[in-house]
């Protein structure tokens, strides 16, 4: 637990994706609905043009009142009242158009954003569930959850805060600049020149913001990991009185998180403040230079008014641009973190030219062969060494050995949750790497000590998303002698089980796992300490059911209680990842090796 509070730095080998590539990744999602995307952009044009027209119309109105020479020719031919009315009418029209288009555009952009985030979330979920166990070994759950929820949410914020309107702001700035240059190039040049220091400062602050934001998100992940660990392990936390200690750790990480968030706020405010200052300076500069032009009679008051409005208008989108920029930067951080997961390679892939297992009813099936299999969870740290054995179809084999000998690892390799480092594993003569994973796992029924239960009813916990008629569910429960237990539950098969099955006992969860395996009629059954949580009476009941269930099926059974495996055809004894003995119970006892000593020790205990 203590290790998890170390400050999180970006992994060195992490490929720094450029913003452009991150942008393309988003664009790929945006392009899924081209019509929506096209409309969102198309509506920016009338909005920007209407916006640029307003200062010009106001300037014209002032020029008209002052009867200046620069007014449009068609206005000169009208009376003052008609001219003013026409200009006011036009101004109202631009206002209405701008409001309507702006609202519609805002709605479409948000709609697009919601769609994109929903798609990303769904793809991410699919990708994460396809990743190999190795990935989950090294990734804390809280960290993953943060990426799947809060980071994807930050991405959604880019759209919901209207930050995507940054393109509209950029467009507005360009349209305004063009309009200004057409009107009076010196003042236009002055204003556009002031954009340069503003842009440089924005870029600097946003880079700082981005750095702080990345760190803040990392700290948030750590915070969530710790939260998750403490909630899942609440029993141990309380029993061992770690509350105060953990609270201290939590406070430390919380402080670090807040510190980073403060930095993001500082840089965000710095951007707004700088822009405020520069925009005021710009208006002052226009007034000063424009005033000189008026004195020199090269400019009139109407034009100056237009430019003062332009100055305001020009920095307005820039200010909004900066505000949105921080949301966009946060979004980029989120895409970066989400991309990290998308870039996580799926280690265990299905073959390009998959083979299938012979499923004709006559064929004797369920042969398992390990050929020179070695395996390491971490590079160089082998936990299984050069394993060679064959389990014949229908044979019942027990794996025995001290704690940590590698029994469960064998099962994980056989189910391809991990890939063997060396050697190969064959099922019915086919290398399991040549089989699609679903095909391999369809033929395997694995019952683990910790029967995991999903939130849902008993039925759905047996079918696990596949469709079986109710009679099949009942029959599977009856065959495994668990139907009596299920019927005892308040609503029988419809009883709702809570997440992780907190309303079932450990033994009850295990019993459900038996029905779950039986309904699939697997050709290979694997029991990893499957009856360890059961009382002697229930175990005898299950043992009886197992005798039927195992008929004509290959089985691998791991059990520490050696009495439960006496009837197996063969016992493989493992020691530190090596196969040290193999034979029937009697043969091994007479050999007087590791098995015999383990057995005698257990006999002494009873
Ligand atoms: N996910 C993992 N990452 C790294 N090492 C692991 C992992 N799982 C198991 N190991 C290591 O591999 C070795 C074999 O573990 P395994 O679970 O196969 O033993 P086992 O014989 O089933 O033990 P037990 O009887 O206690 O269930 C152990 O030394 C263990 O520390």
How does this structure look, described?
Helix 19 (536-549) links the parallel strand 9 and strand 10 (554-558). The longest helix has 53 residues, at 243-295. The protein is elongated. Mean pLDDT is 84; it is low at 1-15. The relative contact order is 0.08. By secondary structure, it is an alpha/beta fold. It has 21 helices and 12 strands. Among the domains are: 24-342, ABC transporter transmembrane region fold, CATH 1.20.1560.10; 452-521, Rossmann fold, CATH 3.40.50.300. Helix 2 (34-42) runs antiparallel to helix 5 and helix 8 runs antiparallel to helix 12 (301-342). The protein has helices at 19-30, 34-42, 44-65, 73-76, 80-130, 133-138, 141-160, 166-183, 185-232, 234-239, 243-295, 301-342, 407-414, 437-442, 458-463, 470-479, 483-488, 506-518, 536-549, 585-591, 594-605, and strands at residues 368-378, 381-391, 396-400, 422-427, 430-431, 444-447, 456-457, 496-497, 524-528, 554-558, 570-575, 578-583. A 6-stranded mixed β-sheet has the order 6-9-10-3-11-12, sandwiched between helices. A 4-stranded antiparallel β-sheet has the order 2-1-4-5, covered by helices on one side.
Short description:
With 606 residues, the protein is α/β, with parallel strands linked by helices.
Descriptors for this entry?
single chain, 606 residues, alpha/beta, ABC transporter transmembrane region fold, Rossmann fold, six-stranded mixed beta sheet, four-stranded antiparallel beta sheet, 12 strands, 11% strand, elongated, binds adenosine-5'-triphosphate, ABC-type oligopeptide transporter activity, ligase activity, transport
